[in-house]
Design brief:
Radius of gyration of chain B: 25 Å
Distance between the termini of chain A: 33 Å
Number of strands of chain B: 0
Shape of chain B: globular
Helix content of chain A: 25-40%
Oligomer: heterodimer
Largest sheet of chain B: none
Largest interface: A-B, 30 and 22 residues
Number of strands of chain A: 10
Number of helices of chain B: 18
Strand order of the largest sheet of chain A: 6-7-8-3-9-10
Order of helices and strands of chain A: EEEHEEHEHHHEHEHEEHH
Structural class of chain B: mainly alpha
């Protein structure tokens, strides 16, 4: 991480509300290339909404979001360009159940990047190797375990060779014994220099991998700092309380 | 599925006949009484039916008018054109069955069933010439089958293209090109009839109402208000009107709106009416499928950078359509039977022909025989559609739990 570089994500005063409910109330954040950011906080704190505004699955209503030099506005071409540079991994995997694992991974490279089928498949097989399930290429998502599905989802996002990876609670829907296999893949990815924004409550992962952590509550950033700062000397009472609650077990 | 199989195996458990009867038919007093009453009813009805079919019914009316039932008044000298297109279809089908059915046995069984049916048809009173054609059909199915076994990827493409260009070839052959003395004299659509016409109405109805229905379903979910309103208006208008009134309007009122001198063929008018009617229902069925697709599927596709069109065409629509296959097939079967209504507006489809046959003085009073035969034909093809759809579902069901 070199702080002198231009930030790859810039968020200024981002607001978002659903009807009367204010989900985000002025989020400011700058992310450097190759930084790993962990976002955590109680449910309803706006953390998922926030990372979903970065590839505009949610539209922000006020403020500014600039990703890789492109500002997110109503121009559909900008949105599609940013989405192609930004991989996303969902809590519920959201694999395409009617396509094989291989087809899931090659879909976007063939249709968005316009790669030849052979090139796309070669890349997909490399990625399956990387996430540790090369033997599952011909299966359908429904035939895989949750952990395997989530690793396919990561491979699917990586196939586009994104500059940024967004993870929206990637292990929350997994059985405990499968969490590690997904976190291992994410750790390896972080070490390879990928810019990552991860919404998660896996504090072990955060401590080991994150460069900075953000604690969200009620649509605001309550506290930010390195894992060491937040775990060892949290400044805010709310952070302390929340950490003590989730670290109890 | 598995618990259904268990239930079935439980009912078909092998038991000695008497034990089985005691267990399933006479296990309580009430059930014993019901068994006796139903048994008696089945006996009465069955006996009546069998006696009528084998001793009283005058089936000559079917044999004598078979060509009329199947082809209407299509000129006898030109019937070879229909056979020729059927030969092409037989070859393509044989080929497709062996190409796509390599893994399962179902395709093989289907091909055998087809061949056996054709051979059985040769026993019917159809004349020596038709028997020759039937034999040729069997031969071409077999030829297609064996060529398909050693075929390559390219062959699949050729066959797919073959299926796509078959309908236009069929219609071209049927209608003809040249004046009366040429090789392919024109045969006016007023001479098309019987099962042939029923098929044409059904196939055209399905082929055209499908894309129209899909577009209407998408239109009804569109963000664009005008598109949405037009789609809703169309769907609700058509669904609020019986098919028969649409057919009457197409026959009687459409000419009023057209400039003088321009007439549209009556069969095409019926086809348009059926298509427009079917599209409205299809749109609602497809919409049901679209609503069942989770939001996460859209989000995952958008997050990869896919456009709205690609998301719809590659991710959402394939899943939605797969979900509604049983409903769509049900609708197509209904459409097939609903085409019988064109008889009321004066077209000579299967039912229309039945009415003209019954109007002949020598066949007066044979309604039972004629309508029994017509019903049988409808049933055979409806059941075939239903059977194919079940096969299609199970073969597409891979990976969906």
């Amino acid at each position: 991480m070199s702080p002198s570089k231009e930030p790859i994500i810039i968020c200024r005063d981002v607001h978002k509300s659903f009807g009367d409910f204010q989900a985000l109330r002025g989020i400011n954040m700058e992310v450097q290339p190759a930084e790993v950011i962990v976002i955590f906080g109680p449910s309803g704190s706006g953390k998922s909404t926030f990372i979903r505004t970065i590839n505009r699955l949610e539209e922000h209503q006020r403020g500014q979001i600039i990703v890789d030099g492109i500002e997110l506005d109503h121009d559909l071409r900008n949105i599609e360009k940013i989405r192609a540079e930004t991989g996303m991994v969902f809590q519920q995997f959201n694999l395409f159940p009617h396509l094989t694992v291989l087809q899931n991974i090659t879909l976007a490279t063939i249709w968005v990047r316009k790669w030849a089928k052979e090139k796309a498949e070669k890349k997909a097989l490399e990625l399956l190797e990387r996430v540790g399930i090369p033997e599952q290429a011909g299966k359908y998502p429904g035939q895989l375990s949750g952990g395997q599905q989530q690793r396919v989802a990561i491979a699917r996002a990586l196939a586009m060779e994104p500059k940024i990876m967004l993870f929206d609670e990637p292990t929350s829907a997994l059985d405990p014994e499968m969490i590690k296999e997904v976190l291992d893949v994410m750790t390896e990815l972080a070490k390879s220099g990928m810019t990552m924004l991860v919404v998660t409550h896996e504090m072990g992962f955060a401590r080991a991998v994150a460069d900075r952590m953000f604690f969200f509550d009620k649509g605001e950033i309550v506290e930010t700092g390195t894992p060491k700062d937040l775990f060892e000397r949290p400044k805010e009472a709310r952070t302390k309380l929340f950490l003590s609650q989730i670290l109890q077990h | 599925m598995s618990h259904i199989a268990e239930v079935q195996s439980a009912t078909f458990e092998r038991l000695p006949l008497l034990t089985w009867m005691r267990k399933n038919l006479f296990n309580t007093w009430g059930n014993s009484v019901l068994t006796l009453i139903t048994g008696w009813l089945i006996f009465i009805i069955g006996r009546g039916l069998l006696v009528w079919v084998f001793t009283q019914a005058e089936w000559e009316v079917i044999g004598a008018n078979l060509r009329l039932f199947l082809l209407g008044q299509y000129p006898i000298t030109q019937v070879w054109r229909i056979w020729l297109s059927l030969l092409l279809l037989a070859f393509l089908s044989g080929n497709a069955l062996s190409l796509w059915g390599r893994k399962g046995r179902a395709a093989g069984r289907f091909a055998v069933a087809l061949v056996v049916t054709l051979l059985l048809l040769m026993l019917a009173p159809v004349g020596i010439e038709a028997r020759g054609w039937l034999l040729a059909l069997v031969f071409l199915i077999g030829l297609g089958w064996f060529m398909g076994r050693s075929a390559t990827r390219r062959m699949r493409q050729v066959i797919t293209v073959g299926f796509i260009i078959w309908p236009p070839i069929f219609i071209l052959l049927l209608r003809g090109l040249t004046p009366a003395d040429g090789l392919l004299p024109l045969v006016g659509t007023n001479l098309w009839g019987g099962l042939l016409l029923t098929f044409m109405l059904t196939v055209v109805g399905i082929v055209f109402s499908f894309p129209l229905g899909v577009l209407l379903a998408l239109g009804r979910r569109s963000q664009l208000r005008i598109v949405r309103w037009v789609s809703i208006g169309y769907i609700e208008l058509i669904r609020g009107v019986p098919l028969i009134t649409i057919l009457f309007m197409a026959q009687l009122m459409l000419p009023l709106f057209l400039p003088t001198g321009i007439t549209i063929d009556r069969i095409i008018r019926a086809m348009v009416g059926i298509t427009l009617f079917s599209a409205a229902y299809l749109a609602e069925n497809v919409r049901g499928g679209l609503q069942a697709i989770p939001k996460g599927q859209f989000e995952a596709a958008y997050a990869l950078g896919l456009s709205g069109l690609h998301t719809m065409g590659l991710i959402v629509m394939p899943q939605a359509l797969r979900l509604v296959i049983p409903i769509l097939v049900g609708q197509f079967i209904a459409l097939f039977k609903d085409t019988a209504l064109v008889a009321i507006v004066g077209l000579l489809d299967l039912v229309g022909i039945a009415k003209t046959v019954l109007a002949q003085p020598e066949f007066l009073g044979l309604q039972r025989e004629v309508y029994a035969f017509v019903s049988l034909l409808y049933w055979v093809f409806s059941y075939a559609m239903s059977y194919v759809s079940i096969r299609l579902e199970s073969s597409l069901g891979i990976g969906q739990r």
